[in-house]
Amino acid sequence: MSNAIDRRRFLCHSIASAAGLAVLSTVGTRTYADDDVTPLTLKGNINHSVTRWTFDFLSLEELCQLAAGLGISAIDLVGPNEWPVLKRYSLDASMCNGAELSLEDGWGDERFHSALVDRYLEHIDLVSEAGYTNLICFSGNARGMSPEQGLDNAEKGLKRVLSHAEEKGVVLQMELFNSKIDHPDYLCDNSAWGIELCQRLDSPNFKLLYDIYHMQISEGDIIRTIRDHHEYFGHYHTAGVPGRNEIDDSQELNYPAICRAIRDTGFQGYIAQEFLPDRDHDIE
What's the number of CA atoms in the CB half-sphere (13 Å) around residue 29? Predict the structure, then answer.
């Protein structure tokens, strides 16, 4: 079997399995032949996408072809230079990136505000002109400062760009990461910190990207947090715990129940699959 066919069949398996589990869809017959992918039969309860970086062994063109064929409506974490590829396949850019400096150098540290303000003002315009909505941002690392000081800094810096985002209809979404395993010293490593920032900014154009994988590691209590605080969550990421692999029965999160909870809040945004595919998984 050729490498191209192997990759095609592998991606079909990974995405179809995740979509069928996480989106509460009725999964129809799937064909993994060379040129035929039968779309999933989705209930339409949830808009779903896949993240670009977790399938970086494929070209964006390949990912778009297969995602569109499977009924996936968007690609997450794609920047301006690659948006034309998504548009060729009528796929949404469900979470735009490219304005950030890094995951570590973020809005929680005043030293980076000047550069961040310039970059975000530019990218807010780009996102709006492209017809997209969501633009990711990060708190960055604490580097010895207290959580309260980080909140003060983030509030001060984001207020310099938030009115422009409101004017352009762009929603800034700060991602929640765990600092226990994947992102040591990250400031926005718990939902309470992020929710406090949302309350201070008090704008429909600032939300949290609630990463289910990260928050399971940081604090658990996923479903109750979603039910109680969903108004602050503008986007969701999925992955299995432990390992960040496919969301199957080898891990501890009950994604059908989680997605029912999200659906029942009336959420109209995207749930993006951000798992790392297990390439040793049997797809025969």
Answer: 3
Closest CA to 117 of 140, 96, 101, 134: 101
Residues recorded for the chain: 284
User: Which among 165, 163, 37, 147 has a CA at the least distance from the CA of 99?
Assistant: 165
CA torsion, ordered 222, 223, 226, 228, to nearest 10 deg: -110
Q: pLDDT per residue over 20-39, tens digit each?
A: 444 433 333 333 333 444 55
Would you call 26 helix, strand, or coil by DSSP? strand
Sign of the CA dihedral with 224 first, then 226, 227, and 231 last: positive
Helix (H) or strand (E) holding 235: strand 233-238
Residue with tokens 């604090």: 219
Residue 14 scores a pLDDT above 80: no
In this structure, what token pair is assigned to residue 194?
């992020």
149 vs 173: CA distance, rounded Å:
20
Distance CA 273, CA 19 (A): 8
Euclidean distance between CA atoms 221 and 145, whole angstroms: 27
Contact assessment for residue 208 and residue 201, using Cβ atoms and an 8 Å cutoff: no
